[in-house]
């Protein structure tokens, strides 16, 4: 019996190769060369449409840890990437065209993979299928997915930044809900006086924005509903104080008065290790977000685990739909992988493809599916996209903030990152020996 994989991007290629490596035939559907998304230019599989960087190589970093975990699972894409590196300091960057060529050649030369050049416009009703069609899923298939899962599909990614809890300077905060509604610690409030607010406001309205592509704003109705905080601010100096930074209903216990303006931070996960900047969806360039938002006193030392983004991005509200093994809750024979699941980034997409492919095989064989330990990066990402406690789900990339806290936490940031990484790799090694019989 063949397993279907839809989409020959990073996640789809990784899933197909994992399945074929297990000795199972694959039917890989890819609409190229007959049709391309607005972002794709070549006929190659695994095309990198934005940067050619796969982020940090150091294992003692979130991105480096993820790649090392993938290598230990015989990642096809990591093998391709390692063969076509280009100098990039501490990052793993690749020759974009050579990388895609290697991916394409590897897929086409695998005898158990049948490539079908065809656009899939409906969710297959029989067999085992992995849908890995990416953030620019074709309109027809996106419509079919939306019809199946209701309003749980987003066509526009308007996300606010997320910071680590440990990097918030609590000396400049107080915890409270507006008008004392909800729990006492539902929000961390970051108050600002008039002078601090004006300094922040002036920096915000003059900051440099990231360019938007034509296909990012092809749906004006959606775009108007995702007002960037910097655009809102340009309507007048007081706009934010009547919007996301309104101080109404909040009293700073340190002063006994209502602040001039307040940024509220909301828990991003149940563990409370990450906080979302409420109402701060933005299209500023990443260095500008760091510079401008760090002017808020409580965030002067903030560690941003995800910057705000604003672009066309088809993704599921995965906590409602998916299990942590990337299968659909209502249909264990249907899997999703890649950015459509809400993982953000090249290698994050590929990693989800590894797990979806492995689990598709296990379903076919009647075996329990795999969910890697929570203290591994792959396990943390897969659990995050399936976590029902995550409110207002938005895509997430690899970062140390989604890992469980260390029992003994080094104060030095680099030592702390190393401790997370070594714990993860040790945990992964035990798991793959026990579950997969690898590494013995």
What's this entry about, in short?
With 440 residues, the protein is an alpha+beta fold. The protein has helices at 10-21, 62-71, 76-83, 96-108, 139-149, 194-206, 220-224, 229-233, 286-293, 318-321, 346-364, 377-385, 413-436; strands spanning 3-6, 26-30, 53-56, 85-86, 91-94, 113-117, 129-131, 153-159, 162-164, 174-175, 187-192, 261-267, 274-277, 304-306, 309-316, 327-328, 331-336. Helix 1 (10-21) packs parallel to helix 11 (346-364) and helix 2 packs parallel to helix 11.
What would you give as the CATH superfamily of the largest domain? Answer: FAD/NAD(P)-binding domain
Global geometry: globular
Total number of strands: 17
* Largest beta-sheet characterization: 6 strands, mixed
Give the amount of beta strand, in percent.
15-25%
Q: What is the quaternary state of this protein? A: single chain
Separate helix tally? 13
* SSE order, one letter for each helix or strand: EHEEHHEEHEEHEEEEHHHEEHEEHEEHHH
Distance between the termini: 30 Å
- Which architecture of the largest domain per CATH? 3-Layer(bba) Sandwich
